[in-house]
Write a structure and sequence with these properties.
Layout (H helix, E strand, L loop, with lengths): L1 H16 L19 E14 L5 E9 L8 E7 L5 H10 L21 E9 L3 E2 L2 E2 L2 E9 L10
Antiparallel strand pairs: 1-2, 1-4, 2-3, 4-7, 5-6
Length: 154
């Protein structure tokens, strides 16, 4: 362990002295949000979790399927308990996962992976990092992948 630390320290010192440092000058501080609009997406990951308040949630990662932003990820939280369940219900219906009885709902987050939908995205400017507003995308609605809209930018 000591030898490993010494080797890392020596390597870092040589890099600094020979100007072999790493250049991050061309790296932005974060992703710019996608423009507000409608995007075809697929559920990439769905991970169960618990909020700080102890309520069950699912963390959803959507991947944009086509167009200029193909491959970009949009993150969303679906609430399984407490406030926010109405949005989760809308998304589940859009993804054809509507149970016969909402009072006896039994589905696992992994069952969402690969599900396709059309996302309506907006931009939220209220997120602050280090005292600076950091715009981010928010999912306003999840609609069926076959839904038709007047203006769909893809």
């Amino acid at each position: 362990l000591l030898l490993s630390r010494c080797a890392r320290s020596f390597t870092a010192k040589i890099a600094r002295e020979t100007n072999m440092g790493r250049d991050f000058s061309d790296v932005s501080e974060g992703f710019a949000p996608l423009p507000a609009g409608f995007y075809p997406a697929v559920v990439q990951t769905a991970t169960p979790g618990v909020t700080k308040g102890g309520e069950e949630k699912w963390s959803i990662a959507w991947q944009i399927r086509s167009g200029e932003y193909e491959g970009r990820l949009i993150f969303q939280t679906w609430m399984m308990e407490g406030k926010g369940r109405g949005f989760t219900k809308e998304a589940l219906i859009a993804l054809d996962h509507e149970p016969e009885d909402w009072g006896d709902f039994d589905i696992e987050p992994e069952e969402m992976i690969g599900a396709e939908a059309t996302l309506q995205l907006d931009i939220d400017n209220s997120y602050v990092v280090n005292g600076k507003a950091q715009p981010q995308n928010v999912v306003k609605h999840v609609k069926s992948a076959s839904a038709e809209f007047d203006e769909v930018p893809f």
